[in-house]
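Write out this protein's structure.
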Amino acid sequence: RAVGESAMSMVEEVRRQFRTIPGIMEGTGKPEYDKCVAISTEASIRKMMLPGAIAILSPIIIGFLMKAEALGGFLAGATVSGVLMGMFQNNAGGAWDNAKKSFEKGVEINGQTYYKKSEPHKASVTGDTVGDPFKDTSGPSMNILIKLMSIVALVIAPSLPKKEVKIPAATIEKKKKK
């Protein structure tokens, strides 16, 4: 959703520039690149605040409310699921990208060969639109997410409440007698 909203803002800005700046299409007018860069930068920062806060606050909340053992389990689960999700996104994105490229040579589907500009090629272009962000941004960002949560956990680890160990009174008495 965040990418779609940001992309629409960018499209609206580009359309505005085409309407209001004469000569862009002919190459004589100069587009306002800085406005497009500002839209992209502002949107990426604004839309990543909540996911970033979740990644930072989750280990803190779990560590202090449920102690170190729960935090260790949380990190193990986040690491395993994050690695698997990252690998899935990288591979799926690459597959969608390669599917589109395969139409240059021709793709046989149910005995018929399809090339560029065919209906199956158009569908693969749609898949590539999803695949590129998957393999180029979403997949690799899982690595950053795992590292961020782990670093936060390591930083707060010395401050976490210690697990209470109850020693039976009989054991204490035996040690005193020795």
